Amino acid sequence: MSDLTGETRLPDPVCYICGRQGTDSRDHVIRECFFSGPRPSNLLTIPAHYTCHNRFDEEYARGILSGLGSEANRVAQRLWNTKTKRSFDRSAPLRKSIASSLVRKIDLISPAGLVIDKAPAIRMDKDRFYPLMRKIVQGMFLHHTGQLLPSNFRSAWSLNALLELSGHRKQMLQASQFGLVYPEIFGCRYLIVTEKGVEASVSWLCFYTNVVFRCYVPPRHLWSPLAP
Ligand SMILES: [Zn+2]
């Protein structure tokens, strides 16, 4: 489904976000605002309605992701000090909201009381953050499998998925395939699990080297017919 330019084409373009026809634009699945400096030439774009892809809160998501990634990743650091800072200068409510989302790192304590790692404690506004992440999962799913993921798909999210790489989940990650990668900015791994004709999938979205979200999409018969 994809050519060398990173574009994914459908025979009769439907919007990859709502699943309906009559698209009037192409959407950058990973928005340009997540990059700093020269952008890769193979930015993935997919047909979509302008009204469908223009309703996400990118500034909020970029603020959260660049804040989480800024300790370990120089691109995230640069974004935090430039684009995110400028957004904050323009909007005090945005600054306040992101500042309250990103609180100090907490110690992860093992059952025996040992500090096993440190993780950012996040209290983010899920309704502002996850719609964009769901859109990225839809874009990656189409790019990797050639199939649409309908807009009512059910998703179960896990933050700090980088810290979960043990036991059963480690096996899942090892079984997964590498998808789209923009070095230092974004990387995706995915796993499609088919059992008795029923399909589920797992995607790992990695931003700025070590900010990893895992999204589990259960089999369709478990989706709600009404809400995502
Ligand atoms: Zn649409």
Q: Topology of this structure?
A:
Blueprint: E1 25-28, E2 45-48, H1 50-53, H2 58-69, H3 74-81, H4 83-90, H5 92-101, E3 102-109, E4 115-122, H6 126-145, E5 156-158, H7 167-175, E6 177-182, E7 186-195, E8 198-207, E9 211-217
Antiparallel strand pairs: 1-2, 3-4, 5-9, 6-7, 7-8, 8-9
The structure holds zinc ion (ZN).
Zinc ion is lined by residues 15, 17-18, 20, 48-49, 52.
Could you characterize the architecture of this molecule?
The protein has 228 residues and is of the alpha+beta class. The protein has one domain. Helix content is 31%, strand content 26%. It is built from seven helices and nine strands. The strands form three sheets. A five-stranded antiparallel beta sheet has the order 5-9-8-7-6, sandwiched between helices. The protein has a two-stranded antiparallel sheet with strand order 1-2. Strands 3-4 form a two-stranded antiparallel ribbon. It is globular and about 45 Å long. The two termini are 26 Å apart. The protein binds zinc ion.
User: Count of helical segments?
Assistant: 7
Beta-strand content estimate: 25-35%
Query: How helix-rich are the residues, as a percent range?
Result: 25-40%
- The gyration radius over C-alpha positions equals 18 Å
How far is the first residue's CA from the last residue's CA?
26 Å
Features:
alpha+beta, 7 helices, 228 residues, two-stranded antiparallel sheet, 31% helix
Summarize the model shown.
With 228 residues, this protein is of the alpha+beta class.
